Amino acid sequence: MNKKILLTIITVSFLAAGCQKAASSDPLQDTESSSVKETQDITISIQSTQESKPSETTMAEKEKETDYMDYFKKNWIRNTDSNFPENGGITFVINGIYNGKLRGEITAVGGSPSYNIDNSQFEGIVDGDTAECVLIDDTRGNEGTLKLTFKSPSEMTAEIKITKKSEDTVMTIPEGKFDFAPNNLKNIEGFEPIENQSFLVDLDSWGKVKFVSGKLTQGNHVPVVFYLTNEEGDIFYEFTNGFPYSVDVEAVSFKDLNNDGLKDIITIVSDQYDGGSGQLIAEVCFQQKDGTFITNSELSQEINDSGNNKDIKTVTSYILNKK
């Protein structure tokens, strides 16, 4: 299966808050800047519901309290799964932690050529450096439990037990105790970042993240890819895109295009395939309330067919003036 398609299938998303745009000297690049907006929509630190008198012990415990932000949003990959997802494996993400309750999503991918998938939501209670969870809405109909242990910002342990197996045995999230590490840009074979089209940005429901543009150069075809990461390169979100192979990224813009209070993304590339003409292609992604991004293919095609894709300003004007 095409790597681009497989990654699209298992892409997962997370929530946070904010909005900012990095400046660019590129004439195609929108130079409008926006102020940083700090919000507190999501509570990450977990506080005890039990009242107690201050003491040296409780203060020491508080200092050692797990910083859950270090684990939030990351795509955690099982340590033994090399070249995930092509070779199969397990990944999970923590989507939210609030008032001691945790929710997330776990996915198991089989190996080639079928790449069968079992996916399940999970919810549970956080207690210090562990979380006891149950699997919910498993796509294969399995039921089970998941115990997470927060070891360090670069290490977690997940203990999975399937308590009721479905008759669907094509693919099942495997049982056992496994070590996990965050998926990182450095783990992607052939990935080359495009530094001048990668920006630190406060992106509303994502908070302070880095929008990373890059190319996958290990094969005959060279697709362009886009991610949201932290500054260390841990991957939070992978965008889908409809661009052809072998394009150069010319401009990226982050602004609210449909007045819903969420920043949307305009991307402009130039076609360089086999000595291509450099024809410009624009694509518009609208951010959803859950933090995902959906490409409006019909609008993007309309912009390209009409020639309103020369730069960010032209694309933006076309969208804002469209009735």
Automatic annotation (TrEMBL):
InterPro entries: Integrin_alpha_N. Keywords: Signal. This is Lipoprotein. Residues 1-22 form the signal peptide. The keyword Signal applies.
